[in-house]
TrEMBL record:
Keywords: Membrane, Plasmid, Transmembrane, Transmembrane helix. The keyword Transmembrane applies. This is Uncharacterized protein. The keyword NAD does not apply. The lineage of its organism: Archaea, Methanobacteriati, Methanobacteriota, Stenosarchaea group, Halobacteria. The chain crosses the membrane at residues 12-39, 51-68, 80-101, 113-132, 152-175, 195-215, 227-248, 260-280.
Length: 297
């Protein structure tokens, strides 16, 4: 192996260690502070430490290789990663409150939002400082498409998520998860239809917004789609489900994992195709570029 490959491998491993430690330690400290000052946050703060570490490993193993390949300045990287990590978590909190209120008490939500913003900042800063040279230059906020394109992209992402949420969620409910919700296993509930509608429209819009900095930074269509899909699959799917290991039945966790992946990954690909940097005005052309791996422009 070349010296460059060895150096790259070491940096990747070091980055994973830092991101894992930063995520786990910050979240554990946030849980400890919440346990002292906020009712309802301390019951499982200590016993969930292994889960926090596992979550950090999952984030590090996913985001570090992506950050190592992504262009941009340190400030751009920080903006990209903070946006997608934090907004993905906000969406999870909102959905958790709707479908499992016992696991997401109303009293803890303000603290959860603040603490998760800090956690996202630690993860984003770790990725930016480890994988981006200090000499890198560039704008913090990426150029945005024109207003019409931006609106169409957000609408396409939101509608894609909403349709998949309804169709795949209904199938999964009918085939697997329905009895658990009907019996209120571990506090799972069936909220009113209007609440479900608001939740999946909100999550679809939030998911689409969270991906804009990333898809406006990566130029290669194929890499852009893969990076976006993998990132949200982990942050919006596997990571929050990992935090519920031992709380929810295994069947529900497994069923929810493939349900979420089938919802968020196609949404990410649509957002990458419509709002990606240099994306073609023709969706068909952009999909063709994704499949062939040709640069945009």
């Amino acid at each position: 192996m070349t010296d460059g490959h060895i150096s790259g491998t070491r940096r990747l491993g070091f980055g994973m260690l830092v991101v894992t430690g930063g995520y786990a330690i910050t979240l554990i400290l946030a849980n400890a502070v919440g346990a002292v000052y906020i009712a309802g946050t301390g019951a499982a703060a200590v016993e969930r430490v292994p889960v926090r570490i596992a979550g950090g490993l999952l984030i590090g193993a996913t985001l570090c290789p992506i950050a190592a390949r992504m262009p941009g300045s340190r400030r751009r990287h920080f903006f990209v990663w903070w946006s997608v990590v934090y907004l993905s978590t906000v969406g999870v909190i909102v959905e958790g409150r709707a479908f499992a209120p016992n696991l997401v008490p109303l009293a803890t939500i303000p603290w959860d939002l603040v603490s998760q913003a800090v956690v996202a900042a630690v993860v984003a800063a770790s990725l930016a400082f480890i994988y981006v040279p200090e000499t890198s230059r560039g704008a913090t906020i990426p150029d945005l498409p024109d207003g019409r394109r931006l609106f169409l992209g957000l609408l396409a992402g939101t509608v894609t998520y909403a349709v998949l949420y309804f169709v795949i969620g209904a199938l999964n409910y009918a085939l697997v998860t329905g009895p658990y919700y009907e019996q209120s296993v571990e506090g799972l509930i069936n909220p009113p239809l209007q609440v479900v509608l608001v939740v999946f429209l909100f999550r679809g819009a939030l998911l689409s917004v969270s991906l804009i900095p990333l898809v406006r930074t990566v130029e290669n269509p194929r890499w852009r789609a893969w990076m976006a899909a993998l990132t949200v699959a982990v942050l919006a799917g596997f990571l929050p489900l990992l935090t519920q290991v031992g709380r929810l039945p295994l069947v529900v966790l497994v069923a929810s994992s493939y349900e979420i992946v089938l919802q968020v990954c196609p949404t990410a690909v649509v957002v990458a195709a419509v709002l990606g940097k240099g994306a073609s005005p023709s969706l068909r052309t952009e999909v063709r570029r994704m499949l062939r791996g040709r640069p945009s422009g």
